[in-house]
Amino acid sequence: MKTETEQIKARDPRIPILFVDDDPIAHRILRHHLKGWQLTCVFSGKEALKALEKENYVIVLTDLIMPEMDGIELLHELKRKYGNRVQVIVVTASDQLEYLTKALDGGANDYLLKPLKRDELEVVLEHALSKINRWNRAMKELVARKKGV
Predict the structure, then answer these.
(1) Which CATH code fits 14-147?
(2) 3-state DSSP of the chain
(3) pTM strictly above 0.90
Protein backbone atom coordinates (compact mmCIF):
# COMPACT_ATOMS: atom_id res chain seq x y z
CA MET A 1 0.00 0.00 0.00
CA LYS A 2 1.39 3.40 -0.97
CA THR A 3 1.71 6.22 1.48
CA GLU A 4 0.05 9.53 0.60
CA THR A 5 3.48 11.01 -0.21
CA GLU A 6 4.27 8.14 -2.61
CA GLN A 7 0.90 8.58 -4.33
CA ILE A 8 1.51 12.31 -4.83
CA LYS A 9 5.07 11.69 -6.02
CA ALA A 10 3.89 9.07 -8.50
CA ARG A 11 1.80 11.78 -10.19
CA ASP A 12 4.65 14.30 -10.19
CA PRO A 13 4.04 16.62 -13.17
CA ARG A 14 7.67 17.79 -13.08
CA ILE A 15 8.84 14.50 -14.57
CA PRO A 16 9.81 15.22 -18.20
CA ILE A 17 7.68 13.35 -20.72
CA LEU A 18 8.30 13.19 -24.46
CA PHE A 19 5.37 12.53 -26.81
CA VAL A 20 6.10 11.36 -30.35
CA ASP A 21 3.31 11.39 -32.92
CA ASP A 22 3.01 12.67 -36.49
CA ASP A 23 -0.59 13.80 -35.86
CA PRO A 24 -0.96 17.39 -34.55
CA ILE A 25 -4.44 16.58 -33.22
CA ALA A 26 -2.92 13.91 -30.97
CA HIS A 27 -0.54 16.57 -29.62
CA ARG A 28 -3.45 18.87 -28.74
CA ILE A 29 -5.32 16.04 -27.02
CA LEU A 30 -2.30 14.99 -24.96
CA ARG A 31 -1.49 18.59 -24.00
CA HIS A 32 -5.07 18.94 -22.80
CA HIS A 33 -4.93 15.69 -20.79
CA LEU A 34 -1.52 16.51 -19.28
CA LYS A 35 -2.03 20.22 -18.67
CA GLY A 36 0.52 21.33 -16.10
CA TRP A 37 2.91 18.46 -16.80
CA GLN A 38 6.41 18.91 -18.22
CA LEU A 39 5.50 17.68 -21.70
CA THR A 40 7.39 18.03 -24.97
CA CYS A 41 5.75 16.98 -28.23
CA VAL A 42 7.64 16.08 -31.42
CA PHE A 43 6.43 14.79 -34.77
CA SER A 44 8.94 12.05 -35.63
CA GLY A 45 11.26 9.41 -34.26
CA LYS A 46 14.28 11.38 -35.48
CA GLU A 47 13.08 14.48 -33.62
CA ALA A 48 12.59 12.33 -30.53
CA LEU A 49 16.17 11.05 -30.63
CA LYS A 50 17.48 14.63 -30.95
CA ALA A 51 15.29 15.76 -28.05
CA LEU A 52 16.61 12.92 -25.87
CA GLU A 53 20.18 14.07 -26.52
CA LYS A 54 19.29 17.47 -25.04
CA GLU A 55 16.98 16.51 -22.15
CA ASN A 56 16.75 13.61 -19.74
CA TYR A 57 13.25 12.34 -20.52
CA VAL A 58 12.33 9.42 -18.33
CA ILE A 59 9.08 8.62 -20.14
CA VAL A 60 8.52 8.50 -23.88
CA LEU A 61 5.03 8.02 -25.28
CA THR A 62 5.25 7.10 -28.95
CA ASP A 63 2.79 6.38 -31.69
CA LEU A 64 3.52 3.13 -33.49
CA ILE A 65 2.66 4.06 -37.06
CA MET A 66 4.64 7.06 -38.34
CA PRO A 67 6.50 7.83 -41.57
CA GLU A 68 10.30 7.48 -41.87
CA MET A 69 10.94 5.92 -38.45
CA ASP A 70 7.99 4.07 -36.97
CA GLY A 71 7.40 3.56 -33.27
CA ILE A 72 8.94 0.06 -33.30
CA GLU A 73 12.20 1.37 -34.79
CA LEU A 74 12.21 4.22 -32.27
CA LEU A 75 11.56 1.77 -29.42
CA HIS A 76 14.50 -0.41 -30.49
CA GLU A 77 16.78 2.62 -30.73
CA LEU A 78 15.68 3.89 -27.30
CA LYS A 79 16.24 0.50 -25.68
CA ARG A 80 19.63 0.18 -27.38
CA LYS A 81 20.78 3.63 -26.24
CA TYR A 82 19.05 4.03 -22.88
CA GLY A 83 17.97 0.58 -21.74
CA ASN A 84 15.35 0.74 -19.02
CA ARG A 85 16.32 4.26 -17.95
CA VAL A 86 13.61 5.45 -20.33
CA GLN A 87 10.12 4.04 -19.90
CA VAL A 88 8.54 3.65 -23.34
CA ILE A 89 4.77 3.65 -23.63
CA VAL A 90 3.42 2.91 -27.09
CA VAL A 91 0.26 4.53 -28.36
CA THR A 92 -1.72 3.24 -31.31
CA ALA A 93 -5.01 3.58 -33.14
CA SER A 94 -4.17 0.59 -35.30
CA ASP A 95 -6.26 -2.53 -35.05
CA GLN A 96 -3.21 -4.56 -36.11
CA LEU A 97 -2.42 -6.77 -33.13
CA GLU A 98 1.03 -7.60 -34.54
CA TYR A 99 2.19 -3.97 -34.06
CA LEU A 100 1.33 -4.10 -30.39
CA THR A 101 2.90 -7.54 -30.01
CA LYS A 102 6.11 -6.34 -31.69
CA ALA A 103 6.20 -3.32 -29.37
CA LEU A 104 5.75 -5.37 -26.22
CA ASP A 105 8.24 -8.01 -27.39
CA GLY A 106 10.64 -5.17 -28.26
CA GLY A 107 10.65 -3.84 -24.71
CA ALA A 108 7.75 -1.38 -24.50
CA ASN A 109 6.87 -0.83 -20.87
CA ASP A 110 3.17 -0.28 -21.51
CA TYR A 111 0.66 0.72 -24.17
CA LEU A 112 -2.37 2.92 -24.72
CA LEU A 113 -5.02 2.71 -27.40
CA LYS A 114 -6.30 5.78 -29.22
CA PRO A 115 -8.37 7.73 -28.69
CA LEU A 116 -6.42 8.60 -25.55
CA LYS A 117 -8.49 8.73 -22.39
CA ARG A 118 -7.29 10.83 -19.47
CA ASP A 119 -8.00 8.20 -16.81
CA GLU A 120 -6.13 5.45 -18.70
CA LEU A 121 -3.25 7.83 -19.41
CA GLU A 122 -2.98 8.71 -15.72
CA VAL A 123 -2.96 5.04 -14.68
CA VAL A 124 -0.20 4.19 -17.17
CA LEU A 125 1.89 7.22 -16.15
CA GLU A 126 1.40 6.49 -12.47
CA HIS A 127 2.60 2.93 -13.03
CA ALA A 128 5.69 4.12 -14.94
CA LEU A 129 6.49 6.80 -12.37
CA SER A 130 6.00 4.36 -9.50
CA LYS A 131 8.55 2.04 -11.12
CA ILE A 132 10.99 4.93 -11.64
CA ASN A 133 10.60 6.04 -8.02
CA ARG A 134 11.14 2.47 -6.79
CA TRP A 135 14.31 2.14 -8.89
CA ASN A 136 15.59 5.51 -7.62
CA ARG A 137 15.04 4.47 -3.99
CA ALA A 138 16.87 1.17 -4.62
CA MET A 139 19.78 2.99 -6.30
CA LYS A 140 20.09 5.43 -3.38
CA GLU A 141 20.05 2.54 -0.92
CA LEU A 142 22.74 0.66 -2.86
CA VAL A 143 24.94 3.76 -3.02
CA ALA A 144 24.46 4.32 0.70
CA ARG A 145 25.39 0.70 1.43
CA LYS A 146 28.50 1.00 -0.71
CA LYS A 147 29.55 4.12 1.22
CA GLY A 148 28.85 2.32 4.51
CA VAL A 149 26.14 4.76 5.59
Answers:
(1) 3.40.50.2300
(2) CCCHHHHHHHCCCCCCEEEECCCHHHHHHHHHHCCCCCEEEECCHHHHHHHHHHCCCCEEEEECCCCCCCHHHHHHHHHHHHHHHCEEEEEECCCCHHHHHHHHHCCCCEEEECCCCHHHHHHHHHHHHHHHHHHHHHHHHHHHHHHCC
(3) no
